[in-house]
Amino acid sequence: MPASANYPDFIIKNESLRLCDRSGNLGPLISNNVSNAHWSEDQSVFLVTKTDGSVLLIDKNGNTVRSIGSNSQFSYKVLEARFHQGTDIQLRLKNGENWIVDKYGNSRGKLG
Description:
CATH architecture: Beta Barrel
Distance between the termini: 32 Å
CATH class: Mainly Beta
């Protein structure tokens, strides 16, 4: 899919989230210690899961917009965060549970 003005190309290399060009040449650093990242074109932010289990919304300039969740909020480490519906976020925990939270980190309930 070609990148538009609002959809940046990005890569996670050595646990660092970086912008890149279409050829894969590395650009500016967005965040360190990243295990997973997703881009929301609607909100123009990255949803970043850190290696310590914290979840952040970060803009494409690397500024933290909001902290969504941490290990203290849930009994197990967050393995992955994905956009669910609209601005809701699905968190997959190490124990296999899936939770839905809003963009502020407030729990909307457990899936399944």
